[in-house]
Structures are given as structure tokens and as C-alpha cells.
Amino acid sequence: MNEATGITLPSVFLIAHEPRHRGELESLLARHFNVQTYDDLHAALGALESQAPDVVVIENDMPPKGGLRMLVMQAGGLPKPPGFLVTAKKGEGLNVSFADGPAAGRYLTWPFSGRVLIDQISELINHSAEKGWENLPDNQRRPLQMTVEEYQKVADAIAAGEPIDYKSAAESCEPLVDATKDGAAHALLVAVQSHHDYTYVHSTRVATLLTLFGHGLGMKGDNLLILSTGGLLHDVGKLVTPPEILGKPGKLDDQEWPIMQNHVVESGHLLSHNPDVVRGARIIAEQHHEKLDGTGYPLGLKGKDLNDLARMSTIVDIFGALTDARSYKPAFPAEKAFAILEDMGGGIDQNLLKVFKEIFLPGSKAEAA
Ligand SMILES: [Fe+2]
Ligand SMILES: [Fe+2]
Predict the structure, then answer these.
(1) pLDDT tens track for 99-142
(2) Is 30 within the bounds of a domain?
(3) pLDDT of 94
(4) Could you write out the three-class secondary structure of the chain?
(5) Domain limits at 43?
(6) How many angstroms separate the alpha carbon of residue 288 from the centre of ligand 1?
(7) Of the residues 98, 126, 154, which one is the last residue of a structural domain?
């Protein structure tokens, strides 16, 4: 857990006895999650009494008498709330049924790819995150449920080669705008992080931050909705970026970096198919990586070429990324993120940054003085 932000990576218990599989799984999982590994069922059971990981990955035939079956017997049922992923060798039958239907448990037979493993675990985490949102107050639950459904619709449309339905995306953002006016933006920024689809999480946080920024600047009605919808859709181009580049934990190399940067061009391209997309939302999608001094991408626009919407999106996009937890970096506290943005000097609009800081951290100016 990051003490300053309350944001943490999902946790996974790995319970496996066979050394080669255990080693392979551990190194794969450690790139994406906080992993605790057990080669002994009793030790794992003890840990499960005091901790609630998001997902338990367990070998099907743990000695002496089976993995999940023994765990269920000894714990008197499937411990809640985690999802379970059972790994089995070819020809082994699954020796337990999942009480809560397929969404609470998955089954993989060796050999399987790392991508399949991470996707399955992500789906289990997302299932439990979305279930957890059901308990939130209405003004937090509705924006989260509506944006996550909308993001899936957008991903499905892109996969099917169909245009993005901008009107539907804008409608799904209305509760988010209301939540921001209600003072629920900070709670939303934390709650959305329990989901494990990073592009969705980042996009919803950028939508929330941009709306909060606009609200603080006195913007109203349709303008707030444009900020929110533009924020939700700003990185849709990443839905066609290869996942191994998108999820790479280390630095991108010289071949990978242009592919990553191309998401901005793709975002603009995907939004260009629908005449309903308003100009402001396209500016957010196409210019959120531009910098005032011309060092940004894809066009290297400069100074007065960039209007307030573009300048706000650049600030918020960087701030959102800095305050997110990833497997390769902790979530920075807001104060540290603002310090980094202040150090960026003329790359970003420092006057707008001051305003955003005062909106996000009211009283910060007075404290600094
Ligand atoms: Fe981006
Ligand atoms: Fe972004």
C-alpha cells in the first residue's frame, strides 16, 4: 500500500509445490502483482486466515492430497473474497467445483502462455472490483459502473472495426460529471484503481481529473461533459497498441517507443470515424502529449498552437500517470507529482498548473507560503 495515496497493486498468493512451475509462475506474476509464494498448503492456509489476497493461484495436485480441494476442506469452504486460478498438468481433472460460478474461479492446463495467465487473473480481479463497487454510495457506484461498461463497448466496437459511439460515451460520463460537482472526485480516483484494466483505470482517472479541473475553473454543463468524455476516450488508441508494449514493465526500446507514441495518432483516427465527436474531445485525444515548448508528440505543436484544453489535458495526463501505482513504480503522492510537473518548466503551462494544484489540493498555496 502506498501510504500517501491509499493506492496499491493487486495481491496474489501463489501456492505451488513443483519447483519449476513455481519459479516460472512467480517471475511472471511478480511483474504485475504483489506476490506471496507458498510451497506448503498449511502455511498458505495460515496466511489466508489473516490476509485477503485478490487472487489465489494454486496447483491442482499439491501434496499430500490435492491443492484447492484440501484448501476448501480445511478452510470449511472457499475462502472469500479472492478469485481462484487452478493450474493443472495435462490429463488431470479439476478436483473441486467453484461454488460461485465460473467468474470466481478459472482453470489452466500446462503449458499456457504468460499472457493467458495474466488475462485470467485480471478478469478475476475485475470481477471482484466491480462487485466491490456495488457497495459504494450511488454517486460513486454509478460513474464507475457506467464508465466500465462503456469502455468495454468502446473496446468491442474497435475490435469489430465499428465506429465509437460518442453519444453513448458522453451519456455514460454524465454521472461522473455529477459526482465531481458533488465533491466525490477524490473518492472516485481511488475507487477506480481496484480495477485491473490499466487503460480503463487511467482513462477514467483522467476524465475525473479533467472534469474536476474544469469545474474548478468555473466551466459548466456541456463543457464539463466534453472534458469528461474526452478524458474517457483520450487513450482509445492504446486499445490497438500491442499489449506486450503497453504492459512492458521496463523502459521501451528505440523500436517500441514510436509504436507506443502512435497511440495518439490512433486515438485521433478512431474518433474521426464519427461526426458526432465534438472538437474539444478530439483536441484532448490528439494533443494530450504535446508540450508548450514543442518537445511533445505527435506534431510537436508549440505555444499558442495549444489551447487551454490541450494544456489542461497534458497536465492531467502526466499527473494521472504519476499518481497511479504500476508494477514498476509506486503511486506518487500528489505533492510529489506536482513537484515533478513544476520541474518541467516551460513544457507545460505553469499558470494553469498552479490553478489545478489549488483545485486538487486546496490551501496548498497558503501552506507553501
Ligand atoms: Fe496518451
Ligand atoms: Fe493518457
Answers:
(1) 544 446 788 888 888 888 988 898 888 888 888 899 999 999 99
(2) yes
(3) 62
(4) CCCCCCCCCCEEEEECCCHHHHHHHHHHHHCCCEEEEECCHHHHHHHHHHCCCCEEEEECCCCCCCCHHHHHHHHCCCCCCCEEEEEECCCCCCCCCCCCCHHHEEEEECCCCHHHHHHHHHHHHHHHHHHHHCCCCHHHHHHHHHHHHHHHHHHHHHHCCCCCCHHHHHHHHHHHHHHHHCCCHHHHHHHHHHCCCHHHHHHHHHHHHHHHHHHHCCCCHHHHHHHHHHHHHCCHHHHHCCHHHHCCCCCCCCCHHHHHHCHHHHHHHHHHCCCCCCHHHHHHHHHCCCCCECCCCCCCCEHHHCCHHHHHHHHHHHHHHHCCCECCECCCCHHHHHHHHHHCHHHCCHHHHHHHHHHHCCCHHHHHC
(5) 11-126
(6) 6
(7) 126
From 126, 155, 189, give the residue that closes a domain: 126
| Å from CA of 282 to ligand 1 middle | 13
Structural domain tally of the chain? 2
Smallest-distance ligand from the CA of 210: 2
Q: pTM of the prediction? A: 0.85
Q: Is residue 1 part of a domain?
A: no
Per-residue model confidence (pLDDT) at position 365: 63
Residues 122 and 154 in one domain: no
Instruction: Compute the distance from residue 203 Cα to the ligand 2 centre, in Å.
Output: 6
Q: Are residues 104 and 215 in the same domain?
A: no
* pLDDT confidence tier of residue 165, bands split at 50, 70 and 90: very high
Looking at the domain assignment, is residue 307 inside a domain? yes
- Which ligand is in closest contact with the Cα of 237? 1
Ligand 2 centroid from CA 324, angstroms = 11
Q: Are residues 154 and 49 in the same domain?
A: no
Ligand nearest to the CA of 321: 2
Residues 151 and 120 in one domain: no
Q: Which numbered ligand comes closest to the C-alpha of 209?
A: 2
Q: Which ligand is nearest to the CA of 297?
A: 1
